[in-house]
TrEMBL record:
<dbReference type="InterPro" id="IPR056499">
    <property type="entry name" value="Beta-prop_HPS5-like"/>
</dbReference>
<feature type="region of interest" description="Disordered">
    <location>
        <begin position="362"/>
        <end position="394"/>
    </location>
</feature>
<dbReference type="GO" id="GO:0048066">
    <property type="term" value="P:developmental pigmentation"/>
</dbReference>
<feature type="domain" description="HPS5-like beta-propeller">
    <location>
        <begin position="4"/>
        <end position="230"/>
    </location>
</feature>
<feature type="compositionally biased region" description="Acidic residues">
    <location>
        <begin position="369"/>
        <end position="378"/>
    </location>
</feature>
<dbReference type="GO" id="GO:0005737">
    <property type="term" value="C:cytoplasm"/>
</dbReference>
<dbReference type="InterPro" id="IPR035431">
    <property type="entry name" value="HPS5"/>
</dbReference>
<protein>
    <recommendedName>
        <fullName>HPS5-like beta-propeller domain-containing protein</fullName>
    </recommendedName>
</protein>
<dbReference type="Pfam" id="PF23756">
    <property type="entry name" value="Beta-prop_HPS5"/>
</dbReference>
<feature type="compositionally biased region" description="Basic and acidic residues">
    <location>
        <begin position="379"/>
        <end position="394"/>
    </location>
</feature>
Length: 394
């Protein structure tokens, strides 16, 4: 109880981990924000988890809606605005100048791919389905407006309980307040009736789907764990349509797999999907359907199969540009080496292409050899290139 003394008599409304320094930040309905450091201490042969005294960081103007932490910075979202705190230098900034009234979330989103990430950006929810993008200094860089973009239809939840239905018709624009913002690779938020995922770097809606009575969500990679108002805990997985069909087939849910396949055929027919769903797998799926009672579904699946793009269709346009009376192979450097067939009317043209490709391949090998030689003999780059050019011309 001593550790929770700053929040005695108040309801803690938000918790946030600093996983590097093993600190827990807490905010309550009174606006107080505190920090407690956790650690381990070896006692005899065992070890114990210990908590250090609580440090009060600040008290904001109202109820703490959400806390977020990244790289020494803590964001505190209250009912009226967002505050940014440099926890090392103990400095505070207010994010933006315009206040709001209500529960609006905020979080940091790391930029760039994993392992090459730069400084995170701050995202703060605003009224009317808007989200501010701000820097570590609290400066608002841009405003993302999702109201009109949310006129797209909701994606169905694929469940064993009910057959999914998808209506591609446009819906009305949605003016919403996002009470929480979470991040993984994208921004995730929710209301009491739906879940939304945005891609802020492109300002687009990745998807939204109707899920009722959501109180809290926790994200781990592509897995969502949803706490509902009645105490239920549901588990949702985000995956591409082809991976969804593949998983359903492994579980022998043939009818549901065929339904998803036909519903999202725009994704299934692409060449990329052949890695997960080769043509023979879809033929196997069709064979598992009941020919008497599922004739319509079989017909729809046959239509999808007839539109499938082969795995190497990305190269087909390049290959088709080479005339049918010529054969070719691909050199290591990526150049198409054209070999004319006997008796072809374009022997001279083909031979010139082949010779040019061979010369190009030899030139690339020469430069590769020169770079290795440069390291061994300590030559300058210009001298090495000059020698390589002289040898190539002779």
């Amino acid at each position: 109880m001593y550790l929770l003394f700053p929040h005695r008599g108040q309801t803690v409304t938000s918790l946030c981990w600093d996983t590097v320094a093993l600190r827990v930040f807490a905010g309550d309905v009174g606006g107080k924000v505190s920090c407690v450091r956790a650690g381990s201490s070896k006692l005899g042969k065992g070890s114990a988890f210990v908590m250090f005294p609580v440090q009060t960081i600040t008290t904001v103007d109202s109820h703490v809606v959400q806390l977020g932490y990244s790289d020494g910075h803590l964001v505190v979202s209250s009912l009226s605005c967002c505050y940014l705190c440099d926890t090392e230098r103990e400095k505070f900034w207010r994010v933006g100048n315009k206040e709001r009234d209500g529960e609006f979330g905020a979080c940091f989103l790391p930029q760039g791919p994993v392992g090459q990430r730069g400084p995170a950006l701050l995202y703060c929810a605003r009224p009317g389905s808007r989200i501010w993008e701000a820097s570590f200094s609290g400066e608002v860089l841009s405003t993302h407006q999702f109201k009109q973009l949310l006129a797209c239809p909701p994606l169905p939840l694929v469940s064993y309980k009910n057959e999914p239905h998808f209506n591609p018709a446009q819906t009305s624009p949605q003016s919403l307040a996002f009470p929480r913002l979470l991040h993984d690779q994208n921004l995730l938020t929710w209301t009491d009736s739906a879940i939304y995922i945005f891609t802020p770097h492109s300002g687009q809606v990745l998807l939204w789907t109707e899920v009722k009575d959501v109180v809290e969500i926790s994200v781990f990679r592509n897995e969502l764990f949803c706490l509902h108002g009645d105490g239920r805990l549901s588990h949702l997985s985000l995956m591409s349509p082809e991976r969804c069909v593949e998983r359903l087939m492994k579980r022998e849910s043939w009818t549901l797999a065929a339904t998803v396949c036909c519903m999202f055929q725009h994704a299934i027919i692409t060449s990329r999907a052949r890695k997960s769903l080769p043509i023979d797998r879809l033929e196997q799926l069709k064979a598992q359907l009941n020919s008497a009672s599922q004739q319509q579904r079989i017909g729809q699946l046959e239509d999808v199969i007839s539109k499938l793009e082969p795995l190497d269709s990305a190269c087909s346009s390049r290959r088709s540009s080479i005339s049918s009376h010529e054969s070719f192979n691909v050199l290591d450097c990526g150049i198409y080496r054209v070999i004319s067939r006997r008796g072809s009317q374009s022997d001279d043209e083909s031979n010139s292409l082949a010779n040019q490709s061979m010369l190009e391949e030899e030139r690339l090998k020469e430069f590769s050899f020169t770079e290795e030689e440069q390291v061994e003999n300590g030559e300058t780059e210009r001298e090495s290139q000059r020698r390589a050019k002289d040898r190539f011309q002779t």
